[in-house]
């Protein structure tokens, strides 16, 4: 698939989602990509009846009167993608890898954000930052984001989700709509993911592949780990191995989903090579 075909595919998927959501939500699709909070606007002198919680004590302490902070509604939203492009994402059948699915999902969401005039940016990471585009506004920038997402070819194979989350937390100075797209095959990232949920509007998109859950019985075969560049021989026909594999994937997804629920973050499970439009429609409906 070239960039033109990729963009055409993304646009068609976004139109499907928009039509489904606008039908179910009576035209409220735009609200998902608009700012939902308040930002500081100005100061004025305190008037009887003003909310005392809005008093700016630093300014008032200078002795020129009591002042309150004025706020205005945020009209624009920063949408930022943190995308795992490590080698474990290459798992998948007939070219439908996890990383291909994540790129398509990010592309669809980016195109939707463009239509709503959001600030848009991303970082693709392995165990280093593979590609970073700071958040900016405008359709030209938005199409460049989608184009660069399509072209990303990672240099490194390993995963460092902690470093990726740290970069996002340090880079995003104001509350943003943060999408984290990964298979989450890593350890020790939980505290930073929680910090992201507290600081930002967090959406976790968890990529899985059927081969990780239902590996066919092929006897004793070599399994290559593309991240560690190591081969291990396993008995794929052994029930104990199958049960262990399924339990590991189930535990990872269950724990991640439970953490998101606890932190009031959104969680979406994606399966490589499958139609993800219903999952995104469900996400947007839930966010409303």
UniProtKB/TrEMBL annotation:
Database matches in Pfam families: DUF58
Residues annotated as signal peptide: none
Annotated Gene3D superfamilies: von Willebrand factor, type A domain
Residues of the DUF58 domain: 42-251
Protein name: DUF58 domain-containing protein
Organism: Aquirufa novilacunae
